[in-house]
Amino acid sequence: FATMHKRLVDLLPETRDRLAKIRRGHGNKVLGPITVEQIIGGMRGIKGLLTQTSRLDAFKGIKFRGLSLPECQIRLPSVRREPIPEAMFYLLITGEVPSNDEAEDLKKDIAERAQTFPNYVEKIVNSLSKDLHPMSQLSIGVLALQNESEFAQAIRRGEKRGNLWQSALEDSLNLISRIPKLAAMIYVNKYRDGKLGEIRENADLSENFCRMMGYHDEKFWELMRLYLTIHCDHEGGNVSAHTTHLVGSALSDPYLSYSAGLNGLAGPLHGLANQECLRFILGMKEAIGESPSEIDIEKYLKDTLAKGFVIPGYGHAVLRVTDPRFVCQMEFAQRYMPNDVLCKLVASLYKVAPRVLKDLGKVSNPYPNVDAHSGALLTHFGMTEYDFYTVLFGVSRAIGVCASFVWSRALALPIIRPASVTMENLEEFVRKT
Ligand code: NMX
Ligand code: MLT
């Protein structure tokens, strides 16, 4: 990782200077009002976080350091068609597209670090009940790895705040390298014979992750590459990134912070929606068959809504169009598995669900999000264990939140402590206005 580290060292003074200038010259400028609705309604639209790695546009979707998903697919070093996760981390950290050599350097470093997995963490993970949800196992595993934190040691020895990004980067690289093995251990323990596949020194993170879980089809590695790229970052306000950033602002190390982020990712309105989505598609197939009519689908959706359930994989707090991450997955399905039954059901649902959700009159975004497609693709390659799916999301999201963590420490951002109001405060405000 020497080249990425050097680039970061070069970028630091100028980036710190840019922020200092904004703060000094414009610190008291007003960016926007805050409405009472925003306070009650989950702070939608309030710009209150500084996140360098990516930015979400309601109509265009995510841009990673200014690059859209299709641009990342074209420009980042890749194997077959999809970018390698290491190249994405390089981009998020430096803001620059790595050369093949730079990506290769990072890939080797990550593969090497993956070989050194602490024994005591293996024992802890192996001792967990198979009934425990894979996301709880993942969060416990990341917490157990915290014993390795160089960041925590740097804090203990009183390292200057401005230097903490160095140990944050070390921890981040270790976390990103080891989280696939942790996830694979959870997978083989819960669903297979407990034996991990071997990893290769010259393989990328995606291939090694799949090998450890026992998947040897190159197309599955490619799907995993796509998966790890599209889920890695979604600006700063989503629950997992926001939580990691919040906990990190207390100078908790990357392991403590990301374990907390994972607990948010495990919620059904956030990352768990991917498992719920496949469960929903399978339920629909069971109830109305493999190739239902649009009328059948509409009725099934309306019945689901009438029972008080949401349609998983649809809607978004920020996006107001079909998620480009859904589109990438649909293209993958059309390219490699045009006749897959579940992928066809996902496509049929896409024709009907937006109309049904629009008719409810209250849904801000009736279009599919990232979670609406992933389960059908994974199932095609034999990964049918849907309660594991959010773990894959977690492996990917580590890439984005760790890159942000490094920058938050590099820019010495302070502890996050917004103010809250009581209902009495709001009533008083309302009376006066
Ligand atoms: N199915 C049914 N109702 C919905 C849906 C949906 N897919 N999406 C929104 N609504 C409802 C929502 O429950 C709320 O109802 P009420 O006022 O009765 O509480 C109303 O529409 C307004 O909510 P929105 O402003 O549209 O959505 P919000 O920004 O609050 O929440 C989500 C965004 C993503 C939480 C919401 O759309 C949802 O619950 N979707 C289904 C779960 C899902 O797919 N989550 C994954 C998000 C992506 N990720 O990976 O994290
Ligand atoms: C994400 O990827 O984090 C989800 O789309 C949720 C969000 O952005 O709020």
Automatic annotation (TrEMBL):
<dbReference type="InterPro" id="IPR019810">
    <property type="entry name" value="Citrate_synthase_AS"/>
</dbReference>
<dbReference type="InterPro" id="IPR002020">
    <property type="entry name" value="Citrate_synthase"/>
</dbReference>
<dbReference type="InterPro" id="IPR036969">
    <property type="entry name" value="Citrate_synthase_sf"/>
</dbReference>
<keyword id="KW-0808">Transferase</keyword>
<protein>
    <recommendedName>
        <fullName>Citrate synthase</fullName>
    </recommendedName>
</protein>
<comment type="similarity">
    <text>Belongs to the citrate synthase family.</text>
</comment>
<dbReference type="GO" id="GO:0005975">
    <property type="term" value="P:carbohydrate metabolic process"/>
</dbReference>
<dbReference type="GO" id="GO:0006099">
    <property type="term" value="P:tricarboxylic acid cycle"/>
</dbReference>
<dbReference type="GO" id="GO:0046912">
    <property type="term" value="F:acyltransferase activity, acyl groups converted into alkyl on transfer"/>
</dbReference>
<dbReference type="GO" id="GO:0005759">
    <property type="term" value="C:mitochondrial matrix"/>
</dbReference>
<dbReference type="InterPro" id="IPR016142">
    <property type="entry name" value="Citrate_synth-like_lrg_a-sub"/>
</dbReference>
<dbReference type="Pfam" id="PF00285">
    <property type="entry name" value="Citrate_synt"/>
</dbReference>
<dbReference type="InterPro" id="IPR016143">
    <property type="entry name" value="Citrate_synth-like_sm_a-sub"/>
</dbReference>
